[in-house]
Amino acid sequence: xxxxxxxxxxxxxxxxxxxxxxxxxxxxxxxxxxxxxxxxxxxxxxxxxxxxxxxxxxxxxxxxxxxxxxxxxxxxxxxxxxxxxxxxxxxxxxxxxxxxxxxxxxxxxxxxxxxxxxxxxxxxxxxxxxxxxxxxxxxxxxxxxxxxxxx
Length: 151
What we know:
Helices cover 41% and strands 26% of the residues. The protein is of the alpha+beta class and 151 residues long.
């Protein structure tokens, strides 16, 4: 097999490019989630809601069940809002559970279950490690390819 299109250790060039592109996508997702979490943590409104339904769906990507709690709450000025919150892979909440909800004062349908700012930033830190790893691995593979002696 031709060595063209491979790094010196036999890693395909497409893998290095894939890692870099995947890192960019993960970085964009992490940035967007960090931005949304920052906005909610600085200007969001906290209230309490009750889980009235737990929608169970099949996530074909991860090949597992995901759960989406449905929580009605009363926003500012007495407006009733019902949101289907972000999915989890475990049944953390049950129907009837009281949960703290953090929502946008401008758009009350933009809401999350308030698990505390430390937990939100910890999730973002972990999500940020994925693009960092992808960038490091992809860059190392390309540098290795560039410094390899030509045959």
